[in-house]
Amino acid sequence: MIFITESDSLEDYLAESEEVDFSHLSIREKAAELYAISSNDEEFIGHAYRFVRDEISHSWDIQSPRITRKASEVLYFKEGICYAKSHLLCAVLRSQGVPAGFCYQKLTLGDAPDTGYCVHALNAVFLKSLGRWIRLDARGNKPGVHAEFSLHGEQLAFPVREACNEIDYPKIYAHPHPHTIRALKQNTDCVQMCLHGLPAELMS
């Protein structure tokens, strides 16, 4: 897949924002802890990815009504949907100088198009050693969903099914997409948001 970066400057993929609040003490401490057990950036990215994937619950999987948005909230409550988990992974990586951005997919809500569509979030990370971007999906594994950190071919949570009109959006955004932030801000119950309140597609 050919990626399109929203910005030509890697500095824009290191910026802090309301959702990617990596100056928060809890983010800095967790990032430093993960960096300390890594011998290089690639190992750190792997540790950070697996921490968010495995230690932060996906809100739908645990049927939690809580909506988290800021990376520090996601870390504190240890839960969030894919949008929120992508904010946390981005914050942890950026806090240690690793450029990271946001990517999206249009997926069916259920197993078929007649169930409707939703926008799914994942991350893109720039590997300086390879001079290229890779995508990582920290949504969280479960039966039927198995994503991994891989340098030699993507292992995402949801491979796109073109026959179902699903889409891999090629753009790597420097900030979370406004449609996803709007959903997190306008809803009050996460279970109901996942059923009825997620954006169905992105209009760049």
TrEMBL record:
Regions crossing the membrane: none
SMART domains associated with the record: TGc
Transglutaminase-like domain span: 74-140
InterPro entries to which the protein is assigned, alphabetical: Papain-like_cys_pep_sf, Transglutaminase-like
The protein's name: Transglutaminase family protein
Source organism of the structure: Paenibacillus arenilitoris
